[in-house]
């Protein structure tokens, strides 16, 4: 390093919109990813891990948040001037991979992928710029059989990770129906597909915001535009009242059962070939799901689901948690969407020029974890820490270390206290902080007699809350003296009792 | 989207220096990470997952490859003009996290972390710009007990993932010894620590390249400089012959056993307090390792190990695989280093101003996987694919789908053929491509009789290689007709036979 003045101290902070995950949070996410991967694998999907970095051109411009700089991605120029970017989802990299390796991959190609994705968006409460997705996609399968399979698998995933039937609903729609509606409304001409593309984009994002903005808000965005609470104005699609009514009727087409919804959708799309095809596909999907034993308690045909991403071309679906949680301000609210997906037949075509049908699901793992935590289904009890071997005599470190090594060799989580051993109280405080179940202690007196003290910290804590006199304290059974040679067996015995008979 | 001309097709390519990992590669890495995490956890370390993105100032300038743009990292400016960057290792983020949360974290803080890191380096064969690291560190433990524990754990990790004792060697050194040598050579003045910092950086990196450049190359870099084969000149540290000899003597100080090496080091560092302290620490580490049962077959004191990173302050260590592999050009070569680490007492101080002792290890998971593959210890047999339910009659998709669903419900990996079912041969080719053990077939004739055909593709392939006549072929047992209701039981039976009695 060059001889320079010392720079000012850097600030120790997580970058804006990012966060760190500690201990149990990491383990809980890993357990969820493992459980989801098991289902994906059982359904015949193979893992794929692409790099976090893609060329910007490979990613395409598909993020709904198009008004942000760099189109919502983190991007930079490589040494050769080429723009690189962090992936914003796992679907765009899959399309790139399939186009790149299509001659070597099986068709259909069924792959799953899990990992972080990055969005250059304005961070907000519970809204981060890095989060996990866990996807499964089938590339090269043209019929809705593939879409129905993905929806059935999505239900199984949700139940496997701890969302019981009744606490979620998979809502299904079809973009072709929406395209039929756009035709009827006069903003899609099959012979000139690029015309009104801008307006259709606004309509799509407006419908996608129904939950947040309500009917009036969406209506405004279909027309001239909408001013939000902060006074910011968002330009609308500029539809006439009549055009807007057609779109609003579509969004409200859901009826008491699937058959009635399908009938209503047929009315709305009228003579549109695309629209009718979409309705027929919706009907087939419902049949296939019924044949697999899925009924109204797990899925519903819901025309208000459109998904914000521009690339969907057929069935779209979204899994919503139906229970209420309490938000930061103590108000009850619906938890909302935790997974979504659909058919995107043109993403590979971007690269190859040839249409390649594809469909898939993306699960928002971090949102799902938040939901389970909000319901108290994970994270209730703090995980057990390691057995702590304390240090009474710093000249005998090697002996204490041997105790920890013996415990570990027996499969027991254990550690030697590595801080300054001078103050023994600090060692026990550390054990407490680490949620250690046991502390192992050997002073010179114990050593001479060939024994160790094993302190049961769980029992000790319980007794400390109950014991009132000194006599009781001395008689308390939370500390045992055992021969040094029996250390491992004694510790294992206590841990098995704590586990209710299980292993360490 | 605005009405624009269609852009030219993007190229489907992995960005330069990055790669994609498919199927087994992903599963093998996951298995290794899980195995390492189990050891780290058993030793009392807790997981931490920081974001991939850090502020550039938090990362600091510690990469050895300082001549590259952006100091070897991928960096960009955020909306608020702040520079962000992808982490280049897992140690810098740990220092940031500890500084940020030090009041809430236990001391010592023992954490493990695993995940990709990114280096903006020139890619080469087997050298990628994204790769996995798997680290364990203890922050707040001042004595070499912590370093010795990390070294012992490193040995256990290597053996757990499949590198037997004798196939690896942990080489241990101490930066304080090197600093003592620098004092003796006159390029470190304890009273003026910043003086000659630039020269010491060159010396450090030169020693670190001993394996690649040989003694003559290092000698050149200690003096005026070195011209490589391409003609590029690297400026040297400018040491006199006498100064350089001291450094060279240090590098060559390894003797037949640890005691002799320590004696030789004492000679070289002479009166340097720091140097003698380093030798004493080395000695203590060796004693602690011996007390844990580690001997000369697992670790060696080796003064030529210095580690390239500038931040180490005490013990440094490196795990080297000692077996030979065959390189791309068919030549035998040593595999080399797969893990390294050491003590870095000043990294947290950068943020807080207060010294916080810390030590840790980083395992190069991708290199370790490459080593195991090169030795044929993983990746030999392709993993088994899913049972394939074929489609004979596309009007009965729901029935075929139900077969796949039944198999999956029984825990058997299965899938329905989702490509175009017209050409049945393509379905069997797909099964072959997927390494499917079995294909399930039901034409209309079978359906009328209430049966399915189960084709044993493993046995079929074996027989196809052996059978020579048509009569034999007809009599071959690779295809069985079973009642529809017995599908799952029959399939499970065959899979258990393939597994040698285990489950599916």
UniProtKB/TrEMBL annotation, chains A, B:
Any one Gene Ontology BP term: histidyl-tRNA aminoacylation
Record's protein name: Histidine--tRNA ligase
Subunit organization: Homodimer.
Segments forming domain Aminoacyl-transfer RNA synthetases class-II family profile: 29-386
SUPFAM superfamilies: Class II aaRS ABD-related, Class II aaRS and biotin synthetases
Main subcellular location: cytoplasm
Species whose genome carries this gene: Meinhardsimonia xiamenensis
Reactions mediated catalytically: tRNA(His) + L-histidine + ATP = L-histidyl-tRNA(His) + AMP + diphosphate + H(+)
Family: Belongs to the class-II aminoacyl-tRNA synthetase family.
Record flagged with keyword Ribonucleoprotein: no
UniProt xrefs under CDD domains: HisRS-like_core, HisRS_anticodon
InterPro entries, sorted: aa-tRNA-synth_II (IPR006195), aa-tRNA-synth_II/BPL/LPL (IPR045864), Anticodon-bd (IPR004154), Anticodon-bd_dom_sf (IPR036621), His-tRNA-ligase (IPR015807), HisRS-like_core (IPR041715), HisRS/HisZ (IPR004516), HisRS_anticodon (IPR033656)
Record NCBIfam families: hisS
GO MF annotation: an example: ATP binding
PANTHER family found in the cross-reference section: HISTIDINE--TRNA LIGASE, HISTIDYL-TRNA SYNTHETASE
Subcellular location(s) per record: Cytoplasm
Any Gene Ontology CC annotation: cytoplasm
């Amino acid at each position: 390093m060059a001889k320079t003045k010392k720079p000012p101290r850097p600030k120790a902070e997580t970058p804006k919109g990012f966060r760190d995950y500690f201990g149990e949070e990491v383990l809980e996410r890993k357990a969820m990813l493992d459980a989801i991967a098991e289902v994906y694998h059982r359904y015949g999907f193979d893992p794929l891990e692409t790099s976090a970095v893609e060329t910007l051109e490979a990613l395409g411009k598909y993020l709904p948040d198009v008004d942000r700089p760099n189109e919502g991605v983190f991007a930079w120029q490589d040494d050769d001037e080429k723009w690189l970017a962090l992936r914003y989802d796992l679907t765009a990299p899959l399309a790139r991979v399939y186009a790149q390796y299509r001659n070597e991959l099986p068709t259909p190609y069924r792959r799953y992928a899990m990992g972080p994705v990055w969005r250059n968006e304005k961070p907000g409460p519970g809204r981060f710029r890095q989060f996990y997705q866990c996807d499964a996609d089938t590339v090269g399968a043209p019929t809705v059989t593939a879409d129905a399979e993905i929806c059935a698998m999505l239900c199984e995933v949700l139940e496997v990770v701890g969302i019981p039937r009744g606490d979620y609903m998979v809502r299904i729609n079809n973009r072709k129906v929406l395209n039929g509606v756009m035709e009827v409304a006069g903003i899609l001409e099959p012979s000139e597909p690029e015309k009104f593309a801008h307006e259709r984009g606004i309509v799509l994002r407006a419908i996608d915001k129904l939950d947040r903005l309500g009917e009036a808000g969406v209506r405004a965005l279909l027309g001239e535009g909408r001013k939000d609470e902060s006074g910011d104005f968002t330009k609308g699609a500029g539809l006439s009242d009549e055009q807007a009514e057609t779109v609003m009727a579509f969004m409200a087409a859901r009826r008491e059962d699937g058959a009635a919804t399908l009938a209503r959708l047929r009315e709305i799309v009228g003579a549109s070939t695309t629209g009718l095809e979409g309705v027929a596909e919706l009907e087939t999907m419902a049949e296939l799901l019924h044949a697999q034993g899925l009924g109204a308690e797990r899925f519903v045909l819901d025309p208000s689901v459109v998904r914000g991403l521009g690339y969907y071309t057929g069935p779209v679906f979204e899994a919503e948690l139906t229970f209420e949680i309490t938000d930061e301000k103590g108000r009850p609210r619906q938890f909302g969407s935790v997974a979504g997906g659909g058919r995107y037949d043109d993403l590979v075509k971007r690269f190859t020029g040839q249409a390649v049908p594809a469909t898939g699901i993306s699960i928002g793992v971090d949102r799902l974890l938040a939901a389970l935590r909000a319901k108290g289904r994970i994270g209730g009890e703090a995980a057990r820490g390691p057995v702590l071997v304390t240090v009474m005599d710093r000249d005998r470190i090697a002996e204490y270390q041997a105790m920890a090594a013996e415990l570990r060799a027996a499969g027991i989580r254990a550690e030697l206290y590595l801080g300054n051993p001078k103050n023994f109280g600090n060692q026990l405080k550390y054990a407490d902080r680490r949620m250690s179940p046991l502390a192992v202690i050997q002073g010179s007196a114990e050593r001479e007699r060939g024994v160790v003290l094993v302190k049961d910290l769980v029992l000790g804590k319980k007794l400390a809350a109950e014991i009132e006199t000194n006599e009781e304290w001395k008689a308390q059974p939370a500390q045992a003296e055992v021969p040094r040679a029996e250390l491992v067996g004694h510790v294992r015995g206590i841990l098995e009792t704590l586990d209710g008979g299980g292993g360490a």
